[in-house]
Fold HD superfamily phosphohydrolase.
Amino acid sequence: MSHILTQKLDEEKVFKDPVHRYVHVYDKLIWDLINTSEFQRLRRIRQLGTSYVTFHGAEHSRFNHSLGVYEVMRRILEKFMTRPAWQEAMPGWSEEDRMLCLCAALLHDVGHGPFSHSFEKVFNTDHEEWTGKILLGETEINQVLKQVSDDFPHKVNEVIAKTYENKLVVSLISSQIDADRMDYLLRDAYYTGVNYGNFDLERILRVMRPHEEYAVIKYSGMHAVEDYIMSRYQMYWQVYFHPVTRSAEVILRKIFKRVKDLYDEGYDFNCQPHLLKGFLEEKMDLKDYLRLDESTILYYFQMWVEEGDSILADLCDRFINRRLFKYVEFNPSIHMRLYSELEQLFRQAGVNPDYYLEFESSSDLPYDYYRPGEEGERLPIHLLMPGGELRELSRASHIVQAVSGKAQTDHKIYFAQDLLEEREQAGCRDVVAKIRQALRDAEKSGAR
Amino acid sequence: MSHILTQKLDEEKVFKDPVHRYVHVYDKLIWDLINTSEFQRLRRIRQLGTSYVTFHGAEHSRFNHSLGVYEVMRRILEKFMTRPAWQEAMPGWSEEDRMLCLCAALLHDVGHGPFSHSFEKVFNTDHEEWTGKILLGETEINQVLKQVSDDFPHKVNEVIAKTYENKLVVSLISSQIDADRMDYLLRDAYYTGVNYGNFDLERILRVMRPHEEYAVIKYSGMHAVEDYIMSRYQMYWQVYFHPVTRSAEVILRKIFKRVKDLYDEGYDFNCQPHLLKGFLEEKMDLKDYLRLDESTILYYFQMWVEEGDSILADLCDRFINRRLFKYVEFNPSIHMRLYSELEQLFRQAGVNPDYYLEFESSSDLPYDYYRPGEEGERLPIHLLMPGGELRELSRASHIVQAVSGKAQTDHKIYFAQDLLEEREQAGCRDVVAKIRQALRDAEKSGAR
Amino acid sequence: MSHILTQKLDEEKVFKDPVHRYVHVYDKLIWDLINTSEFQRLRRIRQLGTSYVTFHGAEHSRFNHSLGVYEVMRRILEKFMTRPAWQEAMPGWSEEDRMLCLCAALLHDVGHGPFSHSFEKVFNTDHEEWTGKILLGETEINQVLKQVSDDFPHKVNEVIAKTYENKLVVSLISSQIDADRMDYLLRDAYYTGVNYGNFDLERILRVMRPHEEYAVIKYSGMHAVEDYIMSRYQMYWQVYFHPVTRSAEVILRKIFKRVKDLYDEGYDFNCQPHLLKGFLEEKMDLKDYLRLDESTILYYFQMWVEEGDSILADLCDRFINRRLFKYVEFNPSIHMRLYSELEQLFRQAGVNPDYYLEFESSSDLPYDYYRPGEEGERLPIHLLMPGGELRELSRASHIVQAVSGKAQTDHKIYFAQDLLEEREQAGCRDVVAKIRQALRDAEKSGAR
Amino acid sequence: MSHILTQKLDEEKVFKDPVHRYVHVYDKLIWDLINTSEFQRLRRIRQLGTSYVTFHGAEHSRFNHSLGVYEVMRRILEKFMTRPAWQEAMPGWSEEDRMLCLCAALLHDVGHGPFSHSFEKVFNTDHEEWTGKILLGETEINQVLKQVSDDFPHKVNEVIAKTYENKLVVSLISSQIDADRMDYLLRDAYYTGVNYGNFDLERILRVMRPHEEYAVIKYSGMHAVEDYIMSRYQMYWQVYFHPVTRSAEVILRKIFKRVKDLYDEGYDFNCQPHLLKGFLEEKMDLKDYLRLDESTILYYFQMWVEEGDSILADLCDRFINRRLFKYVEFNPSIHMRLYSELEQLFRQAGVNPDYYLEFESSSDLPYDYYRPGEEGERLPIHLLMPGGELRELSRASHIVQAVSGKAQTDHKIYFAQDLLEEREQAGCRDVVAKIRQALRDAEKSGAR
């Protein structure tokens, strides 16, 4: 066993944290990871992307959240590893397993880029892939992790990618009740000021028990878990899927799309998107990727407000100055041809639908029981009954049963209302009237 | 009277705010101001500059705070203007006065640039001056304010500049207990997670009374004000003057200084500081100033990590990757020649003291009584005694008396310890040993 | 209109309240009601009866809660009556209606006796009946209310009894989302320290709208109401129905039953239950009723620990010194004859089942839609949709639908385990073994 | 070493606590102590005596607080005894010392009677004396403690009485920053809703270090301790010494005095004060003392409202129905003969000053440095400086220095204003006018 696995700091380090009061660091390895440039970079990427346009408090970074996930994990393991006879409940558990949990918790989001949701869709990339490159490539993080052993970075990557052989380790960071989710619900609730996200973390930590391949919850803590599931449900609909936030996301996507389209056309940018070139030419390298963050992106946007291309300039101005798209809800099962109709009408009105019209759906599955053969992550939550057997949560809880397996989906049309008004005043009355009528019809269908 | 002064929104707008629960907007004018690009720009400037390197939670923006100051002011006025016979207590008070208070509260920080503390020192500028330019120049804010009357922007500016004739209006936004301070103490405490900043805002609002040229506090609320003064004291020393935060500020200043020095020397930047040119050539215009924000500055820093000039590249890398300067406290009355000694030793060791050594003092005056002929802002806080007369706070409160008029100052030396170590290993043992000895001596003097 | 309806205090009175921060009193009538001896008496009756044996924080009184309900009502009306054109939304609304709401909110619990749940079952009485007597009888409260008009006390009583003609007034204090429930959920959560009871009161108040006979909720606030319904559900199962609390309640009932049985038998109490005589002889008068409170009852219990009758002495000792009954859950549909079997076995073992065995069920209906012809209180909650029509909550919310109309019931057997052990050691091994087996069988059925 | 010192419960027990979230019990001995009847009795004695008449939330019991002190102590020891090389910092520390700390923390208030402040003054008794009797007498607590060893109860008593030889043990429960104070400040703040009492307990626990005979505070935590001292100061003046609370206390004392006077005169009580007889005859025994609690006292008061003696009946009615005495502040150094003058005037007016007039002083010393030869408890708080030496707190902190050693005293006259009015209307105009003038003069002197 490598010495670094058990090497403690001379004195514990603490971070004052508004959510967990304090984040405690005892291990030298963790401290070194926090101080790498790749981890510090997370300070320049907001945890909730565009949510700050809706909830002005939501300006916290992924750095903030990552420390929190680490702290939740640390507390889970502290509980697990100080109970009497804990080794019997966790056979074969080693110091390396403990450190894998902590490192995976700290680093699970390290591959995120700026405004990932929008970014990844346009540039066809994926933050999980970049996480792997950061862990395994020529980075400070890789150097720190390698102190344990040559294959330790690889193992951390496997834990984050959910392919690691010790399933208990994996489940603590990726399951329906894991350190990641528990931190982000509490944290996002705190920063937005929305109190729906609160649940009793301390109680959940106390009723969690390691049980073979995952952690289970003592039956006496069922209500705390119900409350956690409901918090999750509420946060999704109240915060994460807020239509104003999504409107800003739509504009982001349109900006990236316009940049891509212009680049492909050979447009000569006044302000060159140097740091995006890798993506535009589909050969992004790690070093450039690590320089991409929200300050970089916002710098470009500010410059492009003055760009010659009027669409790019307009979209950037919208994002920077919060002139967002309007939206109506609609029901796609009734209006299957709505998009093509609207697209055509927009074109007739002289408003480019490629950049000023978008259909967007949000969907959430607050909890799911186990469905053999479907996506692996959805491990159900199990209750440990007084007699010792396990029971799947939705079979014990009416509340959870009610939301279990039922995805809720919401469909919205986003569009530049101000442009329609401009076109109307410029004389296109009939077409704009038709668009308005179509939107009203759509909205009626959406009012369930 | 202009119609816009009393024009209400069809429906109140609310912002979810973690500190005040909700920020309420009823006036159309306020809503329009919030939506101007100059106000939205405050989203890209952090309230606490470099504090986030010490308190990871302190990532909130000036937008966040500005809404909060507005809300505190709104509540103060709501209290004042709904009490029985309030007009007698506020003779001549008009709707315009009310709106001046709200606008000044909302806009008082609108001139801030990125990392103002450091920025302003190097570039010899001042955010208050820019506030004036934004209010009076060709801006969206100016357009909105002018709807009231041609001289309304000017009046708002006078309120913020403390020169407006109605002193009560001025004092609500600038005094020793004003809407600005009350918001920032609560807000900065919330985001950092440090609970020293808490005091009972609701109680203070209830015991505040307009009284001729300022607001006074009913005697029964004295303890709430004591608590507010102590909160202020604690926040200064625990948060605002934290040495790690100041270390990051020192580096910022050194970066700006290096840019200026290089520009003056005619250095050819690989990545040109276009948006800073106005300052470098001492002819900054408003439009460029408004494009300066933290994303712009951080973009430059990231680019300059690769700049040819090794000092600039190193300093930017330090800031971006949080490799800060070390510090020791010292007592300047004992070591008056310390700076020149250290400067010389640094030069001998081959470490440029212009960029890698700094003396910095922080000083706070938690509360002050009135000193005729001294700086105007320090209006004392007055208590309204049961009999009706006024008494200056420090004469009634032992606690406040104890801190009244007593500035606390702390002096620190910041320096690049890692460079000293490098030089030591490169052979400069004697000089570095002398430097270390001088720092140890300084530290002893600093341990009061 | 009586002058007293609009008479304000010279200066507002405030109560520091940990749940609502401050309770504000502006009306002289309210202030006078608070100072009556009948209202002050509520200080000596705990809000949550025996819950304090489980949650040591739950020591707050009905006085505490009653002020809170008043404050919530005051805020509801403040919102309702300051919106533009509010009179159109509340046609015919008068100052008297406003005062009826406030008085009913303040006084709705004034008839409660000590440990009402247990007390009322044994003595066949009902706190609502006593509320009526207090409002209408020779009391200070009646005197204060009569200042408005001779029939004002009667009207307040009708509001509390839900028979008042203005249904909007009634619904604000008695419906599925009323001032009473909103206060007790928040308050009981605060004092127990259980955070399940939290919901966003301020948001609910903002989205509540008067609409003919009741208050409706704007659709945009649906999630806040969902959260409120879930809080209610959680508080019922986590706090109000906690089996340890109910065990203490069972003992209380047994004590009262024993007192009644002894009194009927003509037993000569060492310490006479003077203040209970009215109930024991079924002719309780108001004056005596008002002297009954928890200190009186606890005094008797302490005295009776030394009473000659060993059952009464033992039961009182159990309550005072928290030696509670054990419990097992069971399923009555499987074990319909369980009670008679256990009763017989207890008798065989020499343990009196009348005092040492109890079957108890708790049942909660978190929310119900409207069922014509069933109990009137269950007015459904209606959402006010964007188009203006109403929609019943459970038809819009999956979560609420899941719990709507579904009573959850839990059945438990409470018994004196220590007596069984005593009997076992005294030789009754076989019978006690049979009892244990029966309890184990019952428990198995209860584990659903 | 006795086995019981290290015997753990099979499963930890937790109490949900609103202040510390959870109180954790691991030791069987502690669990057994909590379940004794003498400890359960603390549920029937309020922590803050009559404060609930001012702050309706302050209804929490000494049981509540005692669990809290235990929990703070448990956390202090957990910190102390898990640091690396902790044994070197606490030479000779044994399991018995640990258990002494926990038991003393839990039991330090166990001797309190109902409304101790008032009670003890009249009956010339002292709760600390009763604590000793409970620990050493024939009680369940004594039985539980004796399981450790025959002299363990004696040792616990010594710790509480501050005479135990291990001064570190003593100081953790009795010093200027001890587990008792830290709990009550937080707890009383929570229940009253006054937020002045908040300070960062977790931080203080982290910077506390055992150092020979007491715990010291690392210099880096000085501000947290300043905040604690200020919290203490504020709580004293805002809550503990609130004049309305003291008015209720004055009435309590008058009731007890009247009972004593009547008993001494041989008055035949309609409702005999059986449980007080021991005190009235100066031979109180432990068994009776343990039956005295607030329910007993309040029962007597309710009965005595109907007592033949009009003074006793009136005083009890005042207490029960919150008809309190009025008060004015005065300056005793100016009005030394005021009491005798007023006494005489009251007699002339026909109002008995023995029961309807009282002079009362409250005095608080927020912090004190060490004064050799004065009362032992005032051990100063020491800071552990970076270099390792100790510095007394008030020498390092301006804020603490300002309040150090400076007792603040406030003098008030309490009197039955309503009786004066009655006498006035009954014709005693001149005398009452003189009384009023004297009170006005006194008040003027009191307005400092």
Observations:
- Residues 7 and 355 of chain D are 54 Å apart (CA to CA).
